[in-house]
Known about the structure:
Elements: H1 3-41, H2 46-63, H3 65-82, H4 85-91, H5 96-137, H6 140-144, E1 149-152, E2 157-161, E3 163-165, E4 170-180, E5 183-196, E6 199-210, E7 215-225, H7 237-240, H8 246-258, H9 264-292, H10 300-327, H11 332-355
Antiparallel strand pairs: 1-2, 2-4, 3-4, 4-5, 5-6, 6-7
Helix pairs in contact: 1-2, 1-3, 1-5, 2-5, 3-9, 3-10, 5-9, 8-9, 9-10, 9-11, 10-11
Amino acid sequence: MKILDWYILKRYLFTFLMMLLLFIPIGITVNLAEKIGKILEREVPFGAVAQYYLDFTIYFANLLFPIFLFLSVIWFTSKLANNTEIVAFLSSGVSFWRFLRPYMIGATLIALLALVMGLYLAPKASKGFNQFKYKYLKNNSKVIQTQNIYRQINDNDYIYVSNFNPVTKVGRNFSLEHFEDNKLKYKISANSIKDNDSIYRLTGYVKRTFGDFDDTIETARRKDMAFEFDADDLTPEEYIAETLQYGELTKFIEKERSRGSSNIGRYLVVKYKKWSIPVSVFILTIIAVAVSSIKRRGGMGVNLAFGITIAMVYVFFDKVFGVMAEQSSFSPLVAVWFPNIVFGILAVYLLYNAKR
């Protein structure tokens, strides 16, 4: 690498790091100011709070990775343009494509980091982030009052739980119905069900077996049983998808698809975003360079204003199409990649004009 490459690459990575170090403490401060009352009221251990904000940092850094990168590239490239350094580079015989090379090297490094975070680090952080929120920051009544969960766990068995606590792994008003040849053979019901390492403890157990002429009823105050489902099958959908690493998420989606789950779209959005975010790093880097490499009369303020506008539109597209895929039959693949396609076309157009 030549001096020009090192000069731009160091500025690229340093500005991006400074952007993270600037905005993440602000986010932590705002979040802590909002949550400090409940944390003190419930005497949350310091270690749990520290781990929560470590998970918070990874979770939101991964979520806002492209935006931080976009603003940082606009910031330092605008400074290069205002100091007439870009004019000096190009006047020395360096082509615009050659000038763009260190940006692409930096984008590759950041994209690899984003990929590792999305596939491995962010799911673990998301799990800790959500568990802390459910355990300490929400009232117990709000935690367990989730929507009714009705699932098909295999060809013959259907389960129902009126509500489920993902932290204590306790469900209320549980029932299991077993069918053979479209006829209900038996039904198990219980006031509560608790997961103890894949062995479930039923309280207020009742099993009714349906016969041709009469029924048999078995009752027990407490009964331990093994079932063909795990606690993840009872966990609220918004909570589980973000906490699974890529391989686990893929298997989970296949299992849910075989069960005819109505939430496949939500899971696929999470899966596809793990790959779309690294690609967006390259697209937004090109847009940022194309926008800010020209010296403007208004200085850096014009470039930053234009950059923030583009960032807001990108986030708007990402959120709107993500919600459409989660709550309708809209294709999750199209929803996740549509912002990248649109902004990829914009990147080519802006790059062509900036090159001219």
